[in-house]
Design brief:
heterotrimer; A alpha/beta (544); B mainly alpha (276); C mainly alpha (313); B: mainly alpha; MetI-like fold; 75% helix; C: 313 residues; mainly alpha
Chain lengths: 544, 276, 313
């Protein structure tokens, strides 16, 4: 506990909102030179506030009530605003979450990269330019000179994050605070960004404070971990120790929530084909050279099975799900429901089809009508079902709400009064209340906290066991998929690149893209002795 | 932060309501009863300042300004209300149907709507008044026609963005027909922007109606509106300034009330729907 | 370049439709235009002759084409009252109106952007509240009333500035500006409110975004953060609103011009409506509308300066 050796030292930090609510309740942690410390917690744990308070950049209305934050042994509470400004960027760098809005959209990249250097170092414009280009080359951005004069919106999310990392590391800070830098990215980009970060800090000996909710990421990159719950530290220690032998109940829950590769997945079924897509093609826009979103996809879904459609963002998996349900029209090919060609049928002829095939959307915030109460939302699904009388329908709604883990009390609530997990449960209730034969789940858990993800996944498995519906599970999260799917279909650029039973694919992926996806998914592997091994560093190329 | 937010809209609501109620009471009463006779000429007492008998003074014909203000207020409010109701109803129907169904009808219709929007609102109102003629009906028709395109644009924009929201798609996935989805899911969610816009429209309608009357293109004398009272007060600016002060003051009060209430409405409604 | 050409191309259908609307509006006015020109008691033959001369015996679409042809040649007809050519008359009045509006909007914009920026920066402080209150008051004032009060105070009671009349800049610049001070002031009072509120709202939005925190995290001075990062990004919506404000003033300049007895375009329009001088009405409507379309085009073309993302389309 020698403060002099630590770059960052926080003691008993308390942060309150102006209505006296304590959001951070006595947190202490340390980061030494060259150490990678992960601060883990779910939403509402206060982790972001801790990061911000190190730079004294708390938002309006929030203030550090007590405790000390020391940089290089000196408490920053005593620093003047000017001294803080000197620290910011130059000695303590910060990288943010949303690549879309963390770079100023109206300023060229070169100007933004140069700003920090100009403020803190006394070097010429040529030298600044030289260093910027060198750094961009280091992180393998193609055409570094062109990048300097370009605007942020011309790059993808992953590249923007790496550019932001580069411009922060240009100043060679002693401490880097990374606030959920990869949360908004898909799994391949996540790996790239974190690999870049690891590379850059190892050379300069910078201490890193990684703020995240993703314990899987932590296990692969961090040295030490601090687990935060509702503003308090529940556990801290080296990553190895905490993950192998967690002492706190919450830590254990978090670890359990991380998808682990199981030994055996559910076996494949061989029922009738209920839904099928034949050589489906779809292109957006009318430009002649446009790449098709769906490029000749053929797929058969059998009764009772759970089929996972996996791919990166932009692979066409979501569009395929929509196309199969005829929520999107296709340009060529056919969609068949139990043998009946429904490719061009208008909505009014699809009523019985719709009764049998339902969908659960990704975003629980926008899939529920903000003006309807929960009970009415679920009830609406029963509309037009003439066999059910009023009272019977009410009973069914109440029973379904119970089934998804929400009590009858929820029926009167409005969506904005519910949490993300609760809203998703409502969406699931809406989907199953009619006892459909097929449910398409379009990334149903990616927008949720990790422990909640686990709960919803379990709910799905549970409901399926009970009602026996067929399920198409669309996701980019391989580990989640491995637990519940019989069969997997891997998509890339609008085509199916691999297809087969889950176990077979995980054991021996034949397509290069599948391999990359498996490797990129941060997971734990439970060895035969029931202890969790952190996945070893994989070989394989890094994508830029 | 949220505590502050809470007080702000309540303050607006309070202030706006107080002003609004004052104006409303005076005006609505004015339609049925006034202390004096707004049209009665009384040359002997012309151009007198505020006094016991004439709290707001008399005009160049000796008519009681207070009574004229009350009647004028009632007239202005009715004209503005009629305009808002007309433009909102028409605009909502057109914007809803076009935005929801799209297609070539929508394209052609929006071309014309954009052409009408290419005119500044007052200009369109002036042109239509030239076409239809001045007078109460004329003003209502001209203003309604001038403001409907704006409502259409707002409603259509809201509908277009709502269409992409997943709960609309979910309604389709449940097998609901498009008319049902449009009326049950899309329309109720457009009410917020419509309501907020309607309050500003009310303010503009009052303003434009009084401007038109001021220019002699609105309600013709001897019927009073605040606008034409200001117009006839101009020659007597130095000799009888009260004739210029009171009508304008009440126009300003009404506008302020409309703006404050509109602000309160917006502040109250937006945070709810913006909860993420 | 492509962006420019495309945007310009997009307004052509609008321009055509605007001219169509103006044409139809005037044609829809009840009453026979020929009778208006000739008055009662004209012989049938004369009526027919004039009708043919004006092209009124041709089908409507043809009349429209003929009219457009004349407009493109710069011929907007002649006033029924004074018989002078309409276009030069409009142009002459327009120069004064344009001067008035541009000066007023420029002053109001500068005040509004600075006030809005400051209010957003110090949100919920006493300064912010005062600015919001003033802005709300401002936009609740009718311009003609403000004009009359200004005349009362500065013209009559204090006697600092002239009350009626007008002297053009061409004739006597030294005295000319005196006649413009009060009208400009009236317009500024009325428009600064709505501009300030928009500037404040969009700045508040921008200050909440992550790149502002990022800029502060780089150790930049608050001034640089506000002026170099916040302001350019926040200015966009205000810029669009400025375009709309100019348009509104173009349409409604008649009121201020009437109060201050200035020979502007707005007054010309109103007088011609009262006098049923249809060629002038038509000319004014067309001119003002097309000016507004052009104005919006300029506003759109300059928008990428503040938000480069819009340039891609």
């Amino acid at each position: 506990m020698n403060d002099g050796a630590n770059i960052l030292s926080i003691r008993d930090l308390r942060i309150t909102a102006d209505n006296e609510r304590e959001l951070v309740r006595g947190v202490s942690l340390e980061a030494g030179a060259g150490r990678f410390v992960a601060l883990v917690g779910e939403s509402g744990s206060g982790k972001t506030l801790i990061g911000r308070s190190i730079l004294r950049l708390l938002p309006h209305g929030l203030a550090q009530r007590s405790g000390t934050i020391s940089y290089l042994g000196r408490p920053i509470e005593g620093f003047s605003e000017k001294a803080m400004r000197n620290l910011r960027g130059s000695e303590i760098g910060m990288v943010f979450q949303e690549p879309l809005v963390s770079l100023n959209p109206a300023m060229r990249i070169g100007a933004q990269m140069a700003e920090g250097l100009r403020t803190h170092r006394d070097i010429s414009a040529d030298e600044i330019r030289r260093r910027s280009i060198a750094m961009l080359k280091r992180i393998r951005i193609p055409d570094p000179e062109g990048c300097l004069t370009a605007y942020p919106h011309q790059f993808s999310g992953g590249m923007r994050q790496r550019i932001m990392l580069a411009s922060v590391m240009l100043l060679e800070p002693r401490l880097l605070i990374a606030d959920e830098p990869t949360t908004a990215l898909d799994s391949l980009s996540q790996r790239d960004v974190l690999d870049t970060m690891t590379e850059l800090v190892r050379e300069s000996g910078t201490a890193v404070l990684l703020i995240t909710h993703d314990l899987g990421l932590v296990s692969n990159y961090a040295d030490d971990v601090v687990v935060l719950k509702a503003g308090k530290v529940v556990e801290a220690g080296s990553v190895r120790r905490v993950i192998d032998t967690p002492r706190d109940g919450y830590t254990r829950r978090l670890i359990d929530a991380v998808p682990k590769l199981v030994a055996h997945s559910p076996q494949s079924r061989n029922g009738d084909v209920i839904l099928e897509g034949e050589n489906v093609r779809l292109t957006y826009g009318r430009k002649p050279g446009a790449r098709p979103v769906l490029d000749g996809v053929s797929l058969r879904i059998r009764a009772g099975e759970t089929l996972a459609i996996v791919g990166a963002s932009g692979s066409g998996k979501t569009t395929l799900g929509r196309a199969l349900l005829r929520l999107t029209d296709v340009d060529e090919g056919s969609i068949l429901h139990r043998g009946r060609d429904i490719t061009r049928e208008p909505d009014r002829r699809l009523v019985s089809f719709r009764r049998q095939c339902q969908i659960v959307f990704q975003d629980p915030f926008s899939s529920l009508d903000p003006r309807m109460r929960v009970g009415a939302i679920v009830r609406e699904a029963l509309r037009g079902d003439s066999d059910l009388g009023r009272a019977e329908a009410d009973r069914r709604v109440a029973a379904t709400l119970d089934e998804v883990g929400l009590g009858a009390a929820f029926a009167g609530r409005l969506p904005h009064q519910l949490s993300g997990g609760q809203r998703q449960r409502v969406a699931i209730a809406r989907a199953i209340v009619r006892r459909p034969e097929l449910i398409v789940a379009d990334e149903p858990i990616s927008a949720l906290d990790m422990t909640v993800q686990r709960q919803i996944l379990d709910l799905f498995a549970d409901l399926q066991a009970r009602h026996g519906f067929t399920c198409i599970f669309i996701s980019h999260d391989l580990a989640a998929v491995q637990q519940i799917a019989n069969r997997i279909v891997v998509m890339d650029s609008g085509r199916i690149v691999e297809e087969g039973d889950t176990d077979a694919i995980f054991a021996a992926p034949s397509h290069d893209f599948t391999r990359r996806l498996i490797v990129a998914a941060p997971v734990f592997r439970r060895a035969a002795t029931h202890s969790i091994q952190v996945r070893p560093e994989p070989e394989g190329d890094t994508v830029s | 932060m949220s505590a502050r937010r809470g007080t702000k809209w309540k303050l607006n609501l309070l202030l706006g309501s107080v002003l609004g109620v004052v104006v409303l009471v005076l005006s609505v009463t004015g339609l049925f009863w006034t202390p004096g006779d707004p049209l009665k000429l009384d040359i002997m007492h012309r151009l007198q300042g505020p006094s016991g008998a004439f709290p707001f003074g008399t005009d160049e014909f000796g008519r009681d300004v207070l009574s004229r203000m009350m009647l004028g207020g009632g007239t202005s409010l009715i004209l503005a209300a009629a305009t808002v109701i007309g433009a909102t109803t028409l605009g909502t129907i057109l914007g809803l149907v076009n935005g929801f169904y799209r297609g070539w009808v929508d394209r052609i219709f929006m071309m014309f709507n954009d052409a009408l929007l290419a005119f500044p609102g007052i200009l369109l109102a002036l042109g239509l008044v030239a076409l239809i003629g001045a007078g109460k009906t004329g003003i209502i028709l001209a203003l309604t026609a001038a403001y409907t395109p704006k409502v259409v644009r707002i409603v259509r924009a809201a509908v277009l963005s709502l269409r992409e929201r997943e709960f609309v798609e979910a309604s389709r996935a449940l097998g609901n027909g498009s008319v049902y989805t449009m009326l049950r899911h899309v329309l109720p969610n457009t009410l917020t922007p419509i309501a907020v816009f309607a309050t500003s429209m009310f303010g503009w309608a009052i303003l434009v109606e009084s401007a038109l009357s001021f220019l002699g293109l609105g309600v013709p004398p001897p019927a009073p509106t605040w606008g034409n009272m200001l117009s006839t007060a101009r020659p007597y600016l130095d000799s009888a300034p009260w004739l210029s002060v009171f009508p304008g003051l009440f126009i300003a009060m009404t506008l302020l009330a409309a703006n404050l209430l509109g602000d309160a409405l917006r502040d109250r409604l937006d945070p709810r729907t913006a909860t993420a | 370049m492509m962006f420019l050409a495309r945007r310009v191309g997009l307004i052509i259908p609008t321009v055509i439709l605007v001219s169509l609307v103006v044409f139809l509006m005037i044609r829809a006015i009840p009453g026979d235009p020929v009778m208006l020109i000739l008055g009662e008691g004209a012989s049938k033959a004369t009526i027919e002759a004039v009708r043919a001369q004006l092209g009124l015996d041709r089908p409507l679409p043809v009349q429209y084409i003929l009219w457009i042809g004349q407009v493109l040649k710069g011929n907007l007809g002649h006033s029924l009252v004074t018989h002078e050519a309409v276009l030069p008359l409009i142009w002459d009045r327009f120069t004064l109106t344009a001067l008035l509006i541009l000066i007023a909007v420029a002053i109001a914009s500068v005040i509004a952007v600075l006030a809005g920026l400051f209010a957003a920066w110090r949100q919920n402080s006493i300064w912010d509240l005062s600015i919001v209150i003033l802005a709300t008051l401002g936009l609740s004032l009718p311009s003609f009333w403000v004009g009359m009060l200004l005349l009362l105070v500065f013209g009559i009671w204090l006697g600092w500035l002239p009350i009626v009349g007008y002297v053009g800049f061409g004739e006597d610049p030294a005295r000319a500006w005196q006649y413009l001070v009060l009208p400009v002031l009236a317009l500024v009072f009325v428009e600064v409110g709505v501009l300030t509120r928009m500037a404040r709202a969009s700045t508040i939005e921008v200050l909440r975004l992550e790149y502002i925190t990022h800029a502060r995290a780089k150790g930049l001075s608050e001034r640089r953060v506000l002026l170099r990062h916040a302001l350019p990004n926040a200015f966009g919506p205000t810029w669009t609103l400025i375009g709309m404000v100019v348009g509104t003033l173009l349409g409604g300049s008649a009121v201020v011009e009437t109060v201050f007895t200035l020979p502007g375009l707005g007054r010309l329009l109103v007088e011609s409506i009262a006098a049923r001088d249809y060629p002038v009405i038509q000319g004014c409507l067309l001119f003002i509308a097309l000016t507004y379309v052009l104005l919006n085009l300029v506003v759109d073309l300059l928008y990428p300066l503040f938000d480069p993302r819009t340039a891609e389309r």
